[in-house]
Amino acid sequence: MRTEIPRTHPRYESLVVREKLVEGFEEGYVVPQGLIAHGRGECFDYLIGENTIEPALKAMKAAAAALLLARHPVISVNGNVAALVPGDVVKLARAVNAKIEVNLFYRSEERARKIAEVLRSHGADEVLGVNDATATIPELFSERRRVSPRGIYVADVVLVALEDGDRTEALRKMGKTVIAIDLNPLSRTSLAASITIVDNVVRAIPKLVDLLKSVRTESRNHLEEILRSYSNNEVLSEVLDHINQRLRELSEKLRVKTRSPGEP
Ligand code: PTJ
After folding, report:
1. Distance from the CA of 169 to the center of ligand 1, in angstroms?
2. What is the CATH number of the domain that holds 138?
3. Which of 77, 162, 163, 202 to mutate to test the pocket of ligand 1 (most atoms within 8 A of CB)?
4. Can you list the residues of the chain whose pLDDT is less than 50?
5. What is the pTM of this model?
6. DSSP 8-state class, residue 128
7. Residue 5 phi/psi, 5° resolution?
């Protein structure tokens, strides 16, 4: 870590996460826009309470079922994800036999290579999307359209984090199940994905790996039932209800504190 953060600092965890992104930026694989995106995420994390909330757990269960039932699952990795959770991405890929593919909004071959190196240094055997991003997602005009013909292009289930709405919509149009991890329940990605986990990627991926240990023992029929009964809109509504209720409670607490003792 470039800056030593005192362990006693009340926001130690959050500051360590920031440092990881700054390191990735200095090493040239996180883009400056990634730092801005993280700040946006932090703001939503404050609103949900910096915890994995019940609707996120519901979405994770559906995500675990979708990944276990998939024939060609792929985990898509960008600069921020590589900086924050490289080891957990490798663990998740192993747990569900998924391929890992680098896919970038601000694509350069040098960044893609660096991200693949980071993932390999955390144990990935194979990383797609570097030198082989020769297939194209139809109706998508950003650099994210470039994908591997052995990876995202043929995947039936794609897990994305800190994603943009355009690609999520384009992947859905291709008939794929998209699992998104996004702290903003109102983003186009969150609204367009098949399953949205509204949680910080640093909590969500390790929790998903953990959850898979129990979900993987379920029968195929039961996994299919989990997916059939899942409603992403319902889960997103529950996230908004959670934020709404939390803000009301916080506001009430402040009101109580400001009342003088004799006041009704
Ligand atoms: O590495 P590249 O070139 O692919 O670029 C990556 C970024 C993140 C810059 C690019 O995908 C981008 O611009 O993303 P957006 O459109 O800013 O969307 C990022 C979304 O992720 C926003 O909805 C944020 O609230 C959310 N977010 C930010 N940090 C986290 C997060 N969600 C989960 N965990 C986080 N730590």
Report:
1. 16
2. 3.40.50.12640
3. 162
4. none
5. 0.95
6. B
7. -100, 125
